[in-house]
Amino acid sequence: MKKLFILTLFTPFIFSCGDDDGTNEPTTADLTLNISGLADLGSEAQYEGWLIVDGSAVTTGTFTVDGDGNLSETSFTVDEDDLENASKFVLTIEPIPDPSADPADVHILAGDFSGSSASLTIMDEAAIGTGFASVGGSYIIATPTTSATDDDLSGVWFLVPGDMPTASLTNLPDLSNVAGWTYEGWAVIDGTPVSTGTFNTAAGSDASAPFSGTEGAPGFPGEDFINNAPSGLTFPTNLQGATIVVSIEPVPDNSTSPFLLKPLAGDVPTDAAVGTSYNLDNIAASTYPSGTVTR
Fold first, then answer.
1. Of 12, 51, 88, 127, which shows the fewest CB atoms inside 10 Å?
2. What local confidence, expressed as pLDDT, does residue 19 receive?
3. How many Å separate Cα 276 from the centre of its chain?
């Protein structure tokens, strides 16, 4: 797997004047985005484009996306010399308000210019750096954090059962040293997504257990839905017929729903048995945004 390329050396860009036309104003040109599959980020985040010019990042402007995936802006006026000399375009997710003039760590799309355009993908080294095409996985339904016998269908764990359980999410890239992204598990219960916690590797506990019981939990991502049920749900529950999802989430992230990047998902059988492994489908390619930038 290619490692995520993180732009770390950003220096303030000083506009240089274009041809002397007596106005001392820089010459500008238009940059056009044609991107599909981006998500509405709500009122606390927005997208921002960046030209990479001699190793430095130069903003092309910010935009938002509505619920139908439509960009609020698709054409941006930038310095002509910057546009001509740019080697790469990077799209980031930025907070609102944004305290920094530099790109955030969350790089979602990127691509190298070839002539007048660049193809943008999450697989570029300046974005996430992989397509997750080889990722696989499974889960079990069980409630190891409670000793009760009538709630066994109310928990989901990403592990292969046995005397020595092992990680069930295979070929999952390690995000421990990657800024800007993490994994999150979900159970969609009666249409309501409920997080099982965030994690960076397939082996090891996830970051939190707000719903689990008090018994010892396995050292793998997962959650028992026993306590503190969100509004509209009742715990313990029955996960038969629910949907299990593993998503890739931006950091920071305040959404209560899975982000648009979902490598794995699967429906829990309506006759699911406790402690039995059930496979997740790789749906990564169908959830990717992509597009082009033209100069």
1. 12
2. 46
3. 29
